Amino acid sequence: MQRLIINGGKKLCGEIRIQGAKNSALPLLAGTLLVGKGSCEIKNVPGLSDVYSACRILNSLGCRCRWEKGTVRADGTELGGFEVREELMRTMRGSIVFMGPLLGRLRRCRLTFPGGCPLGSRPIDLHLSALRKMGVSIREEHGVLDCSCPGGLKGADISLSFPSVGATENIMLSAVLAEGETVIRNAAREPEIEDLAGFLNLCGADVSGAGSGTVHIKGVKELCGCTYEVMPDRIAAATYMAAAAVTGGELALRQIRCGDLRAVINVFEQMGCDIYCQGGEGEGGTLFISGKKPLKAVEPVRTMPYPGFPTDAQAIVMAALTLAEGSSMIIENIFENRYLHVDELVRMGADIRAEGKVAVIKGVKELYGAKVRAADLRGGAALAVAALAAEGTTEIEGLHLIDRGYEEFEKKLSAVGADIVRE
Ligand code: UD1
After folding, report:
1. Given the CA of residue 378, which atom of ligand 1 is nearest to it?
2. What atom in ligand 1 is closest to the CA of residue 24?
3. Which ranges in the chain are annotated with CATH 3.65.10.10?
4. Given 3.40.1000.10, 1.10.10.60, 3.65.10.10, 1.10.10.10, which CATH number is that of 22-229?
5. Long-range contacts, stretch 52-57, CB < 8 angstroms, 24+ apart
6. Do residues 23 and 165 lie in contact, with contact meaning Cβ atoms separated by under 8 Å?
């Protein structure tokens, strides 16, 4: 079992290149299954265990896929299988987005319920009901989903009762090769949805409206390979912003899209950080952040679907707020059990009360090093943020969870002055 050992209290200074977005790379990789002609080259794909799991899934289906130095080459011209093995499905929640492309391309798939972080019950009812509306018959037996649509997928008008990111992606991925037009209403508006549409359109799909609440997909006969670059990871960016904030450091975060981070930037500005964006809207921008100790408490932070404050940044911002003068409140609206990091932060001296959706954080003067355990990916990153500011040594167990989402985490942090090693 690997651990992170962090000696806190070092001010971080320098620059960090932000990795490609995990949550965009996974659906894009699944999307390569739809490509029947030519191969895909996807750049800026972060080297993460979730990405390697996605490549394993693709290879197991007969799509020749390889990650090398940030580029994935995937050739799915000759798919051989329609079944994703249980141990592969269990590695991550994102594995559910393989369902749509398999149905689109092969009209059949067999897989189990996905795994992922334990954030409360994570149903897939929205995915399944949309696919049924598109003509898929789904049999659920002993945790196995056996899906088929021998006559092919049919376009449909689908209204989501909640703008689920995964369901929006899965529907888009199934609809590109379906017969006729699909409309997704109350679609998720996350930037990763636009990135997926960008990739699919470059392959010859006809997707419009991605990034708005209504997405239109006109089915096409075939997709062709292309070269595409994954968007920057806004949650990794938020994590390094928190690392600068709690250490009173100064970081330049390169290869970032500041426009995707507005809700997060707003909270760090309330904490008293100075933030300056250069080239904010497009690719390749830089965000400069300078943390001013002591940080200040903020207005209530409510996690919401995009463009609201992202649930994935909740734990990370909470770690920073443990050191902010005054009381702050977080309301977690997306997942029912996303406070697994609270008890661990309390072990480090934080003053947090969490009940149901609400957590109240009273800022303390100092955190201290302790032995803590990551229970989920972003919660683990939050412990690392707290440890960077804490007095003394922190040992974080469960590093494999952090590795699911952060490329070269300790290397990037030690390059800007953190005392952090993997053991
Ligand atoms: C994606 C992200 C995850 C992020 C989340 C919300 C990936 C791989 N993961 O997860 O990091 O935290 O978006 O921004 O991109 N729900 C249902 N039924 C469904 C689907 C979802 O009730 O069929 C509920 C979920 O339980 C949850 C909420 O909808 O309460 C949001 O989930 P969703 O947007 O689907 O998140 P994911 O796609 O799983």
Report:
1. 11
2. 15
3. 3-19+233-422, 22-229
4. 3.65.10.10
5. 53/88, 53/91, 53/92, 53/95, 54/25, 54/26, 54/29, 54/30, 54/92, 54/94, 54/95, 55/29, 56/88, 57/84, 57/88, 57/95, 57/98
6. yes
Residue 93 CB–ligand 1 contact under 6 Å: yes
Does the beta carbon of 377 lie inside 6 Å of ligand 1?
A: no
Q: Which of 26, 113, 161, 162 to mutate to test the pocket of ligand 1 (most atoms within 8 A of CB)?
A: 162
- Residue 13 catalytic? no
The catalytic position among 117, 149, 226, 277 is 117
What pLDDT, in 10s, does the model give residues 277-325?
Answer: 998 565 679 999 999 889 999 999 999 999 999 999 999 999 999 999 9
At what angle are helices 234-247 and 377-389 packed, to 10 degrees? 20
Tokens of 52: 């390697």
Residues 6+ apart with CB under 8 A from 292: 248, 272, 273, 274
Is cis: bond before 307, omega within 30 of 0?
yes
Q: What is the CATH class of 3-19+233-422? A: alpha beta
At 237, give phi and psi (nearest 5°): -60, -45
**Cβ-based neighbours of 343, under 8 Å, separated by 6 or more:** none
Q: What contacts 217, CB < 8 A, 6 or more positions away?
A: 155, 171, 172, 175, 176, 178, 181, 182, 183, 184, 205, 206, 207
What is the pTM (predicted TM-score) of this model? 0.96
User: Nearest C-alpha to atom 26 of ligand 1 is from which residue?
Assistant: 122
Each residue of 5-59: pLDDT tens digit? 999 999 999 999 999 999 999 999 999 999 999 999 999 999 999 999 999 999 9
Q: Report which DSSP code applies to 398.
A: -
